[in-house]
């Protein structure tokens, strides 16, 4: 079984490779996406550390002067095939943007330092031969400085996201309340090439897209400078900030390997972990998101709120595990972890980030369970990741209860993480 999964995963990754990087899926996602590339590179590192390094190099080529790693690096030949694309962002006109490539102005969750450290660990000799860590350490430090500096819009020590796309969990119920006050009348005409590749019932609605475009326009037209005082979407997300803390710990490991002082990274991870406490919701037994514009914490249980299980020294481990295994999530019958509270009336096991199980999330939960010594449940999730991926042609996401496939197929991070589980 493991050989079959590995062979099929490798074939998907090979087919989705485009000279310098891997696209998330041919058709629906024709450019390079930031956090996808980290997951993809972790998988690639098992079969080709060299290619994993190229994947990250291509991503860092899009870094802005302020340190940000953009959500998307555009393939100039595919501008018609995804919206909003390079012609919407016109990034070269924005001060501080890279001039060799065109990118989005937004970002995605910071799983990059974590990925770089994992790629190094997969083959340290190869990594040293190519100076992989030396090459990337200062870029990662600048990326984190951007997030901890300009993005700490609430002054709480947590980074804010400024658009649902930055969460990676685009139409998560976490954003519903704030989305209500976002206008839907963007100046740009709504163009939905995504609907040529995916069922409309499995994608965000036209109304949501109007709001997504409105926010992206406003952020772009303010020079992507994070200084727009009245900007209406400023959210502290537990998933985003957990990955920042986990990545700070990876930077501490990278610094140690390079013989550099790394205590500041450990301190920073600790500060983020402590600041996250303000996002813990005892009655849900998990973390949630905070709206920085009015200080309210959203009362909804989503997969984002369980990812803090990855934090060492997590004080709510028992409660988080109880929530994971209780009726809101696994309930003794799920094959992979649902993205949204199964007891919620609007849980929909087929709709994008509003119920289905995603392979990257279950993979991160399995990583956390392994670290906590819950190896049986980690093995259960890892086994289902590989099996469901290979059986259903590497779907973007699945029904958590039946395993039925949804979204696009031959999806790269599904393939990469299925491959990873075979090692
Ligand atoms: C989805 O997001 C993009 C926008 O970034 C989209 O819906 O068009 C999300 O699942 C996100 O997490 C992922 O990085 C991206 C590409 O796979 O697709």
Automatic annotation (TrEMBL):
Claim: Hydrolase is one of the keywords in the record: yes
Gene Ontology molecular function, alphabetical: Glc3Man9GlcNAc2 oligosaccharide glucosidase activity
InterPro entries: 6-hairpin_glycosidase_sf, 6hp_glycosidase-like_sf, Glycoside_hydrolase_63, MGH1-like_GH
Any matching Pfam family: MGH1-like_GH
Keyword annotations of the record: Glycosidase, Hydrolase
Similarity field: Belongs to the glycosyl hydrolase 63 family.
The name this protein goes by in its record: Mannosylglycerate hydrolase MGH1-like glycoside hydrolase domain-containing protein
Originating species: Pseudarthrobacter sulfonivorans
